[in-house]
Structures are given as structure tokens and as C-alpha cells.
Amino acid sequence: MARTSLTRGYKGKGHVSLRPLNGTGRKFRLGNVISLAETIETDRQSREDFQEAGGGELDVSEPVTSITAELTVNDIKPETMALGLRGSHELLAAQAIVDEAQDAWSGERVTFRYLPDPDVAPVVEIAATAAWAGTTAYAVGDLVLDTARAYLCTVAGESAGVAPTWPTTAGATVVDGTVTWRDLGPVTLTADTHYTLTPQGVRFLAGGDGLFVGDSVLPLLVSYTRNPQYIIQALVNAGTEYEMTFDGLNEVDSGNPFVGRYFRIKFSPTSGFSRIGNEFAEMQLNMTVLKDDTRLGAGLSQYMEFLMV
Length: 309
Prior knowledge:
By secondary structure, the chain is an all-beta fold. The chain is 2% helix and 47% strand. It has one helix and 24 strands.
């Protein structure tokens, strides 16, 4: 039986999909779009009637100056993030990350370059690779390595001509010329003693305070397994043009279908996306409907068309 409309009331739901017009990339759905509305703006000019007291208009010209639309989506997908940030998105596979350089401070979090696999324990090491040198100026925070143990300069000065007898107890100190060194222990740090794991990396505990001098930085080398993840690079393109399709339905008209096609559109960067809050995050997307010169034929719109029963 053919579909017929039982009411002209309208309550829309549906799927919004985009296809890049440059031929690169596949068609994809935006996800849960909770609002979609067009705005047609015009430049209205009129010729008023000055012949009668009652006034009025003799002619009016109202050319369209722009067609825009606003979408609100609360499926925060990688594609949506990239769209709203005029960026790109890429799916990264699992990978072993070896000796990634990081900086640490007492009591603070260390965020790895990538999201780590929580099932693979990271290896966190003090980035002490230099051997001790005689009659050399050292600054507070400098590190030297001796027999797989790290030593931290806590008092600046010049080292002696002969290497000191290095302590082998974490926290012990030794004077070397006018330099004072603190034994930090083995270069490989211990989980739940020096640091604890976080979903993004590690956080240093009070047990690691002896690794630091005041607010000085402690250089690290971290090795871990990268969890599969998307990476979104913001503001790396001038804005891809798309064709947009709305596969909709009218909820109050027996679910009758409604289709909207926007032949050539371009998105502006998002006007708002809250990353912290008690409510579900929403992304506001604004787009401009542009003229599609490839659509030729009498009576064919070069902007958009709609199908309904």
C-alpha cells in the first residue's frame, strides 16, 4: 500500500550523513543529532507608496543572501570532533612506545603522549644517562648515572678530580668537590612506591618526593604499550565541503519518511563544546549551504531539496 499523510503536524527524527565532495573519505553518520534547523536570510528592499495617507508598498525585492543551518549533536564521535574543530582524525593501532621523554614534578601527574593500554604495566625510568665527569660544573637538578643508579645534584658547584665513593642507599648524599649528590636509587622507578598509574599515565606519590629538589623538574623515560585510539588534530584544514543527507521521519504521521538533501555545504568551527560538566556534552555545528553548479536542469534547486508524502 502506498504511503499517505494523515496529518501535517511534524515532529522529526532521523539520521544525518555527510559525504566529502573532494572524493577523499567515506560517507559517515554524525550520530545522535538532536536538532537541525535552516535559516534563510534575505536583503529586503521595498518601494513605498507615498501617494496615499495609508501608505503601503508598491513593490518589494527580497533576494536571498545566505542559507545557513545549525545542528546540535551529542554523539561526540572522532568524525564530529574533527568536523567541529576544522581538523582531521586518525585511528592509531596498538604500538610499543619505547623511551618516551617526559618531565615530572613532585606530586604531579605525568600525561603520556598517547593513551596507554591499562593491561600492560609501563616502565618508568629516571633519564640519567650521563657519566660523572671530574672538575666539571654541575647545576642543581643535574643527573649522573653510576652502576644503574641515578644521582641528583642538590648543591651546585664543581666536581672533584676523582670520583667520589657513591652511596648505594636511596636518599643518602655525598660531597664531591663543591657539589653535593643525592642517591635516587635504581633508575627504574617502582609503581605504588614512587608513582601510581592513571588512565593517562602516572602520578607521583609522596614516596617519590626524594627524587626532586624543590620545584625542579625530573626528566623521565617511559616505555608502554599504546592503546588503540583516535587522534584529532584541530585547525589543520580550511574546511572540507560536504553533501549532507537527512534520512528523517515524521513521528506524529505514522513514521512517514522525510528526506532532505543539501548538495554543497561547508561547516564553521564549533561555537561551543563543554568538556567538563554534569550534563551530556553537546557540540554546536553551523553550516552554510552553497550553490552547487553541477546541478543543471529546469526547476532543479542548486542548494537543497526535500521529499515527503
